[in-house]
Amino acid sequence: MDGEKIKSDTKLDKERRTFIKNVLSGSIAGSLLLVLPMGADLVLGDSSRPESDIPEQIPGIRGREWDMKAHRFAFIVDITRCIGCGSCCVADKREYQIPDGFYRTWVERYLKDYEDNVYVDSPDGGVNGYQTPRDDLDVKIRDTFFVPKLCNMCEYPSCVQVCPVGATFRSPDGFVLIDSKRCVGCAYCIQACPYSVRFLHPVTRTAEKCTWCYHRVRKGLLPACVHVCPTHARKFGDLNDEESEVAKILSGPGVLTVLKKDMGNHPSLYYKGLRREVV
Amino acid sequence: MNPLINYAFPNDLHVHWSMMIVLYPYITGIVAGAFIVSSLYHVFDVKALKPISRFSLLFALAFLTCATLPLLMHLGRPERNMNIMLTPNPSSAMAGFGYIYNLYGILLTLEILFIYRPTLVELRRKSKGMMEKVYMLLTFNSDNLSERAIALDNKIISFLAAIGIPMACVLHGYVGFIFGGVKANPIWASPLMPVIFLLSACVSGIAGIILVYAVIKKIKGEQVDIDCMRTCVNYLAGFFIIDFVFEMLEVFSHSYLNNWYHHSVDGLLWGPLYNSFWVAQVGIFSVIPLLILGWLCLTKVKDSVYRVAAPILGLMLLLQVLFMRWNVVIGGQLMSKSHRGYVTFHPEWFDKEGIISVLVIMALPLIVLFILSKIFPFWMDEETEAVR
Question: How far is residue B27's CA from residue B60's CA, in Å, rounded to a whole number?
Fold first, then answer.
């Protein structure tokens, strides 16, 4: 009898031990999963995993060879929808690990008083969201709105024109990109960009700017900022695809504007409902 | 500006082209201006400038050797600087600099070697050891001083000096165009920019030569050639009057055009640049020198007074051009492309592009000039035979 009890106790002990072991190894393995970086590369770059793990966001790209001439991408920012939450800036900063004080994209806050004075600010590029009103203004505000800014992907880009070594270029699919391995860091492109979307990256010491997440677009994914925008104020798509939202907006009757039209750069970034105060 | 209304784009808070890019056009300007002085003698036969005709070439060469230093200090990736010549982008205003700079360097060196050839041959005969080897190299081991050889030399010198004038103009007018071609910046985007840069280059070059010529002579306890000095000052007056007129025309046009684009320029000149533009560049270093120039050129000033006044004037105009470069390069970046506000620039002392670097880079050409003086005699009277 006693012998049996002892036997069952050791059995129980063994089960308990295995249980604790399993729990421990499970939680260690689980926490490792949390700790290990799961970048987009790991998910998308690994050929053993099908791309379909992440649903396609831009139709007509996956499963076929990239045709440089097949697409005509456009970016539309709908001012009337932006709530200044700063999610786009956070997504961008995470996607590219941009150090503080440098901005690939930012959100401006416009306030207008009854005397038509315009007060603009963009603390930290709006990355923290506009959670409280401006406390330094002692005027009655008539109107307020937010304006996200990013690369205008010009058809005639000044930055490409002035780059002395051809490190900045406009690819045939319409993206203005930078070859950071060629860039000498002269900052001429930064001077030439009418929209101030460029900066000299303090670590690489080469020019840097928004790319409309070219690496994501090539995989059929939306730019990070478009993907996270909770109010759908940022829209992106292929104008050659008549079913795309951007094509419909651009062919529709709504008012669309580009920034600094007189510069003659022909941006592919359009603003819906843009106000005349915005530069 | 009212800080509540002041808004600069977040990326505009960094002044990417800082003091090194102020020095770059300043130094190339001095090079181009000094060359013009020597060409006045070698091409236009202004005899009074003979005493400094050689010195001005070496002065130009000394500054030319240091002209790329500020650029290298400024580049984010200086180790890739050769990309500008290896893979130039033909549409870029900046891409031609490497070629223009090097061609000009070759031309200037050749001209100096040809002008000095008889002297160098003579010096080679007199010297021993290492200096003999140096002179052998510099004369390409040729000691032919026959009449025919000298006549050929003179032809080559005239040719080099003649093509040197447009090249000096291209060198510096081009630097002006690097700024003038930036349409995003209203204070830069002006067809007058290359012209103003070129004229101010002539001013700084002549002013620099007057100052350094006077200082060297003072140190050696010799007298400056007063005719030469007066001629220099007269040319300086001519160039500076046109330069200043264009500078003011630029400002006047901006404020008269008065469109939204140019409002930012007005706000800049009367705001953050008030002291460095109106007080320094225009007031102290332009109006006062203009008065001094009028006094020196239009009245009969005693030689002894002239000998003191001219170098002071030279120093003032050197500073005028330095302030002008500062106001264009740094000033242009102080207005945000938001056209709603301005930023500030605080020079650092020990930065790569800081004040110490500026002082070192500005001292280097003078050191190079000193070394050159040990090889090439600056003044005609130091030579045994007077050649050309």
Answer: 9
Tell me if residue B159 falls in helix, strand or coil. Answer: helix
Task: Give the integer Cα–Cα distance in Å for B145 and B151.
Answer: 10
> Is B182 in Cβ contact with A162 (below 8 Å)?
yes
C-alpha angle B239-B240-B245 in degrees, rounded to nearest 5: 105
Q: Quick one: which H or E segment has residue A142?
A: strand A141-149
Distance (Å, whole) CA B173 – CA B181: 12
| Span B58-105, pLDDT tens digits | 999 999 999 999 999 999 999 999 999 999 999 999 999 999 999 999
Q: Does A149 touch chain B (CB under 8 A)?
A: yes
Q: Tokens 């808004």, residue?
A: B7
Tell me how far the alpha carbon of residue B326 is from its chain's centroid: 14
Q: Which helix (H) or strand (E) holds A208?
A: strand A207-208
DSSP character string of B295-332: HHHHS---HHHHHHHHHHHHHHHHHHHHHHHHHHHHHH
End-to-end CA distance of chain B: 60
pLDDT band at B47 (very low <50, low <70, confident <90, very high): very high
What are the structural domain ranges in chain A?
2-36, 57-279
Is A166–B87 a contact, with Cβ atoms under 8 angstroms apart? yes
Q: pLDDT of chain A along its 279 residues, tens only?
A: 455 555 555 666 677 777 777 777 767 666 655 555 444 444 444 444 555 678 999 999 998 999 999 999 999 999 999 999 999 999 999 999 999 999 999 999 999 999 999 999 999 999 999 999 999 999 999 999 999 999 999 999 999 999 999 999 999 999 999 999 999 999 999 999 999 999 999 999 999 999 999 999 999 999 999 999 999 999 999 999 999 999 999 999 888 999 999 999 999 999 999 999 999
A274 in contact with B, Cβ within 8 Å = no
Cα separation, A149 vs B10, whole angstroms: 11
Chain B residues within an 8 Å CB radius of A137: 4
Class of domain A57-279 (CATH, top level): alpha beta
Is the distance from CB of A76 to CB of A84 less than 8 angstroms? no
Within 8 A by CB and 6+ apart from A21, the residues are none
Asked if A197 and B11 come within 8 Å (Cβ–Cβ), the reply is: yes
Q: Where are the domains of chain B?
A: 17-180+349-383, 222-345
Q: Give the separation between CA A210 and CA A208, rounded to whole angstroms.
A: 7
Phi/psi at A277 (5° precision):
-70, -20
| A124: closest chain B residue by CA | B10
Instruction: Name the residue among A120, A197, A206 with its Cβ closest to that of B77.
Output: A206
CA distance A125 to chain B (A): 6
- DSSP β-ladder status, A141-149 and A106-113: antiparallel
Q: Which residues of chain A neighbour B78 with C-beta distances below 8 Å? A: 184
**CA-nearest residue of chain A to B20?**
A186
Instruction: Tell me the C-alpha distance between B232 and B213, whole Å.
Output: 11
Could you give the CA distance from residue A34 to residue B173 in angstroms, rounded to a whole number? 60
Question: With an 8 Å Cβ cutoff, are B76 and A263 in contact?
Answer: no
